[in-house]
Amino acid sequence: MRRFLLIWTGQFISILGSGLTSFGLAVFVFERTGQATAFAVYALLDSLPRILLAPAAGVLIDRWSRRWVMAAADTGNALVTLAAAALYLTGRLDVGAVYLIVLAGSICSAFQEPAYSAAIPQLVPSAQLVRANSLVQFSQSTALLAAPLLAGWLFGQIGLGGLMLIDFATYFFAVGALLAVAIPQPQAEPRGAQRRSLWAEAGLGWPYLLARPGLLHLIGYFAGVNLLLNGVLVLTGPLVLSFADATALGLVYSIAGVGTLLGSFLLSVWGGPRRRVAGILGGVALSALGLLVVGLRPALPSVGAGYFILLFAVPMGSSLVLALFQSKVEPAMLGRVLALRTMLGRSTMPVGYLLGGWLADYVFEPAMRVGGALAGGPAGAVLGVGRGRGLGLMFALAGLGVLVLTLAAAADPRLRHVERDVPDAAPEPAAAG
Q: Is residue 176 part of a domain?
């Protein structure tokens, strides 16, 4: 795993730098607007290009060198960050500019993330896929833990512009590691197949999944989970800031980072359960419990504990489902299938972001204020009333919804037996590239 670990190190340093900018920009947006809807728009613009560009990205990842796709995307993200720093330092940064910056960065990530995932099976043996994916989760969780703490301390020293300049510098580590390592490339399809249009070639992922309905049902399950999960996670900032300050928000993010850090570390050491589907459903069910705890009380101990449980469970579901796809899909088709999985599985996220922000501002928050429509009922008695309690109710309802979806998935024989019904992809010799 030496080549993988070198690339992983460069990406980890870059992710840590990106976390500084993301935290600073999120606080910047909320301070300027004070609305949950603004957070939802921020999250929508961050996710939409990754969904819409997924089919094209999948084809290009299978056609081109995955190493160079990652390097080009990292370079694009670096230039976007540099432009953001220039706007801030010249006093031209506003909420609209932040939205454009987030949109441009997401376009780059739409190519970088699936290329990274598709490259992993070319770098590590099948038996190590869960460990490799867990290490990726480990780097993301470490960044989630460290970035808010570093950002909170550095913000007072060097400001938002300084944070973005540090982020820009970290991209050199990511690109340098990619230039130093050759990533084997799967054997290309016959030349005639590559002459088809981009969209026609992207469509090849559909019959591939239709012939493997268990994988398609798994994607549908995560589309439902993403709708509920992201519809409330986008409200984390408004929820915490309804009873505490930005320092407390950074602490919650750090606690969540500790949860993901421990979850991904334990999974990387353990390697996951023999039956990956059982681990996936168990991990998602545990994350639903975390959502319920988050919504209970407007206090740091309960919100922090809920986020710890939630993020501790996330690596179990995400790493195992990615390893399952990596082991079941032929390398030459992996980019397209993973991109289609991204497009379908995340297609509900924008709906969740917009619906969550609107429901928070105009339905649940007014209903849970003193004298509101739900304040005098069971919800008010259990969760309390006042500012932020509508958000708490949304977290609790989302947790219950995820549990119901998980029970339905466990009752689906196609999904439950996907490991038995879909054969492992045959290993393919590949030339370095």
A: yes
Tokens linked to 23:
């935290």
Distance CA 225, CA 160 (A): 34
Q: Among 253, 351, 346, 366, which Cα is nearest to 304's?
A: 253
Domain count, the chain: 1
In contact, 295 and 235? CB cutoff 8 Å: no
Residue 28, domain member (yes or no): yes
Question: To 5 degrees, how large is the angle CA 49–CA 52–CA 54?
Answer: 95
Is 433 part of a structural domain of the chain?
no
Q: Residue 368 sits in which domain range? A: 2-182+201-421
pLDDT digits (tens, 9 = 90+) for 167-225: 888 888 888 888 888 777 666 554 444 556 666 666 677 888 888 889 999 999 999 99
156: pLDDT strictly greater than 90? no
Say which CATH number the domain at 91 has.
Answer: 1.20.1250.20
Entry field: residues in the chain: 433
Question: What are residue 184's DSSP bridge partners?
Answer: 432
Element (H, E) at 269: helix 246-270
CB 66 within 8 A of CB 7: no
Paired tokens of 198: 């981009």
CA dist 60 and 64 (Å) reads 6
- Ramachandran bin of 91, using left for φ above 0, alpha for ψ from -120 to 50, beta for the remaining angles: left
For the ranges 63-72, 87-96, 140-149, 235-244, the lowest mean pLDDT is seen at 140-149
Taking only the tens place, the pLDDT of each residue in 7-35 is 888 888 888 888 788 877 877 777 777 66
Strand partners of residue 185: 431
Cβ-contact 259, 305 below 8 angstroms: no
| Average of per-residue pLDDT across 285-289 | 93
C-alpha dist (Å) from residue 108 to 104, 123, 286: 7, 23, 32
Is pLDDT of 98 > 50?
yes
Alpha carbons 336 and 431: distance in angstroms, whole number: 20
Provide the phi-psi class of 48: left if phi over 0, else alpha when psi is between -120 and 50, else beta. alpha
Spatial contact of 91 and 367, defined as CB atoms under 8 Å apart: no
Q: Which two tokens mark 253?
A: 């993010």
Helical segments of 64-128, H only: 66-89, 95-123
Residue 92 in tokens: 């031209």
pLDDT exceeds cutoff 90 at 281: yes
